[in-house]
């Protein structure tokens, strides 16, 4: 059975020729498409459809950077698994990105205006950083215009806006108390914009790519939770997929940095891990080419995918007094005590059994 039409096959072929010139093989491309299907929880039968979608006409993309640390841009530029950086730049016509574009000054701003004015409703916007609202937005200006002015024009006319990182999604660190600049999320600054949030510090670029691939494939953004986060990436707690979860269930907790439990990879909940209160797919997708993520590396989750995390999740090295809807804080100590009791009881039973066995063995010898 033919999975793709002749036109689709031609588009895929042309895309493959472009990618091969960059050193990306057909195998790499199909691996990318399969990886996107898996990340989006789609059946393998849709891989050809994804391949067709990402091989079609290049949509425009502009990347706006406001109150931020540039961590999300750095995450994009360092992405290599799958070959996201190369593939995404082949899929999209990236017409504006302050960090990586060649033009500067008026020429750079003209590149932005060319997209916004000539392609209304036909381009994607990625927003990195929060928007300061106090004092007319003077705390972040680009080309003589405030961030809020730029955001309202560019995001207000976009096909879709993707807020990457906690700052763009919820205000992040700039919005932490006392929030002197009046920093807000892109959705708060531009309420009418179609926004999907990808919080985290930094964003996982595979989740960003998956959102765009979903739109190209189905003509819509992925389904989201009440906080505007796509379910495929933020549908489960960190705690649910954490490789240290078994240690939590066994009552094995790190009590001090560098102790035996820390060296053995035990649960970091007592040391302030916010995994039970944080929703993200970090344990599954990971970072640095899928090598690791903070908890695997020995550092507790700080909850950077949640709104107002800087205020609500601190202090970062002390466990939360309460996790709404979870109750883990009420059971962690009991689990630990219970497991110690079970272990002690088990040792005692084992000792008694050995004693009985030895005594019986001695009696048998005497009767011989």
Summarize the topology.
Blueprint: H1 6-20, H2 26-39, H3 47-54, E1 60-65, H4 71-77, H5 84-91, E2 93-97, H6 105-118, E3 123-128, E4 131-132, E5 141-142, E6 145-146, H7 147-156, E7 160-164, H8 165-170, E8 183-184, H9 186-189, E9 195-198, H10 205-218, H11 231-234, H12 238-241, H13 245-249, H14 260-264, H15 282-285, H16 309-312, H17 328-366
Parallel strand pairs: 1-2, 1-3, 3-7, 7-9
Antiparallel strand pairs: 4-8, 5-6
Helix pairs in contact: 2-3, 3-10
Brief description of this entry?
With 368 residues, the protein is of the alpha/beta class.
Provide the descriptors you would attach to this structure in a database record.
45% helix; two-stranded antiparallel ribbon; alpha/beta; five-stranded parallel sheet; 17 helices; 9 strands; 368 residues; single chain; 3 domains
Structure commentary:
- The protein has 368 residues and is of the alpha/beta class.
- The protein folds into 3 domains: 1-56, no CATH class; 59-233, Rossmann fold, CATH 3.40.50; 238-353, Irregular (Cytochrome-c3 Hydrogenase, Chain A, domain 2).
- 45% of the residues lie in helices and 9% in strands.
- A hairpin with a 2-residue loop joins β5 and β6 (145-146).
- α2 (26-39) crosses α3.
- CATH homologous superfamily annotation of the largest domain: NADH:ubiquinone oxidoreductase-like, 20kDa subunit
- Beta-strand portion reads 5-15%
Total number of domains: 3
Shape: globular
Tell me the series of helices and strands, N- to C-terminal.
Answer: HHHEHHEHEEEEHEHEHEHHHHHHHH
User: How many E strands?
Assistant: 9
In this structure, how is the largest beta sheet organized? 5 strands, parallel
Compute the number of helices: 17
How large, in whole angstroms, is the Cα Rg?
26 Å
| Mean residue pLDDT | 84
N-to-C span: 80 Å
**CATH hierarchy, class of the largest domain:** Alpha Beta
Strand order of the largest sheet: 2-1-3-7-9
Q: What is the second-level CATH architecture of the largest domain?
A: 3-Layer(aba) Sandwich
Helix content: 40-55%
Structural class: alpha/beta
Contiguous uncertain segments of 5+ residues: 339-350
The CATH topology of the largest domain, please?
Answer: Rossmann fold
């Amino acid at each position: 059975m033919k999975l793709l039409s002749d036109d689709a096959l031609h588009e895929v072929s042309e895309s493959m020729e472009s990618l091969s010139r960059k050193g990306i093989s057909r195998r790499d491309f199909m691996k990318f498409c399969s990886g996107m299907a898996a990340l989006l929880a789609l059946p393998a039968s849709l891989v050809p459809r994804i391949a067709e979608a990402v091989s079609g006409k290049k949509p425009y993309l502009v990347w706006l950077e406001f109150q931020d640390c540039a961590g999300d841009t750095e995450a994009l530029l360092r992405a290599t698994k799958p070959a996201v950086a190369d593939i995404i730049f082949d899929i999209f016509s990236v017409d504006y990105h302050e960090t990586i574009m060649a033009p500067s000054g008026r020429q750079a701003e003209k590149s932005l205006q060319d997209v916004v004015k000539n392609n209304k409703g036909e381009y994607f916007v990625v927003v990195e950083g929060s928007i300061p609202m106090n004092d007319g937005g003077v705390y972040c200006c680009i080309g003589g215009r405030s961030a809020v002015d730029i955001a309202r024009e560019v995001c207000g006319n976009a096909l879709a806006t993707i807020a990457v990182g906690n700052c763009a999604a919820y205000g992040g660190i700039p919005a932490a108390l006392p929030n002197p600049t009046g920093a807000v999320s892109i959705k708060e600054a531009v309420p009418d914009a179609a926004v999907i949030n990808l919080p985290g510090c930094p964003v996982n670029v595979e989740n960003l790519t998956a959102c765009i691939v979903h739109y190209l494939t189905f003509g819509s953004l992925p389904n989201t939770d009440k906080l505007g986060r796509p379910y495929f990436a933020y549908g489960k707690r960190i705690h649910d997929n954490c490789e240290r979860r078994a240690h939590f269930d066994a009552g094995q907790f790190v009590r001090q940095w560098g102790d035996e439990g820390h060296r053995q990879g035990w649960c970091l909940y007592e040391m302030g891990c916010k995994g039970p209160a944080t929703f993200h797919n970090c344990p599954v997708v990971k970072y640095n080419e899928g090598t690791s993520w903070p908890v695997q590396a020995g550092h507790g989750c700080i909850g950077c995918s949640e709104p107002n995390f800087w205020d609500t999740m601190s202090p970062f090295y002390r466990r939360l007094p309460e996790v709404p809807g979870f109750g883990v804080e009420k059971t962690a100590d009991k689990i630990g005590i219970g497991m110690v009791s079970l272990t002690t009881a088990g040792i005692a039973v084992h000792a008694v059994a050995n004693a009985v066995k030895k005594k019986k063995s001695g009696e048998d010898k005497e009767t011989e």
